[in-house]
Amino acid sequence: xxxxxxxxxCAYGDVFRLFAQTADHNGTNLxxxxxxxxxxxxxxxxxxxxxxxxxxxxxxxxxxxxxxxxASLQGWVNIKALLTAGAALPYWLGGWWEVFEEPFxxxxxxxxSNGKVLCTTIQPASLSAPPAGSPLVGNFHLKGMFGxxxxxxxxxxNERFTLGEQSSEKRKFxxxxxxxxxxQKIKATRxxxxxxx
Length: 197
Hints:
Elements: E1 15-23, E2 29-40, E3 43-48, E4 62-67, E5 73-77, H1 79-83, E6 95-101, E7 105-111, E8 116-120, E9 136-143, E10 147-152, E11 159-167, E12 172-179, E13 185-190
Antiparallel strand pairs: 1-2, 1-5, 2-3, 3-4, 6-7, 6-13, 7-8, 8-9, 9-10, 10-11, 11-12, 12-13
């Protein structure tokens, strides 16, 4: 929460997902989606379906008031970004990757839907948001079905990656890559939020 307001990445109309490993007062693990409306103090107003059920004999969509608990916010769709994003990313690419550059450097890349890739040396505190601060910025282009080429907006050499292991069931994706003009090998592993289906 920033100054009592929803973070910029979770604005009015954004679709969100809540997930918590521990059971709530009903003895149920939190695993729910809805639409964010507004945050007022610690009260988060949302629109959510699934508000009926077997005991009522019907289902419903209702406005709800929740306590703001950002630790359970596991993901969202920024509607404004989605509407202006153009082509969708392949299912295996978007989000955070841990990138190991031989012989010993580790970086963290964030591939966004806007064709930008952000790079930082700091391991992300949250896999649900791009890096804060001033990360290194680059552009990426898809090459075929399973290739990505990164062009950095700096003196760093361009990089080319190819999808290696891809297992949706095991939730594991890796890429193998090289830097332009070198024989240096790079291996990237997608970082996934634990607990998601």
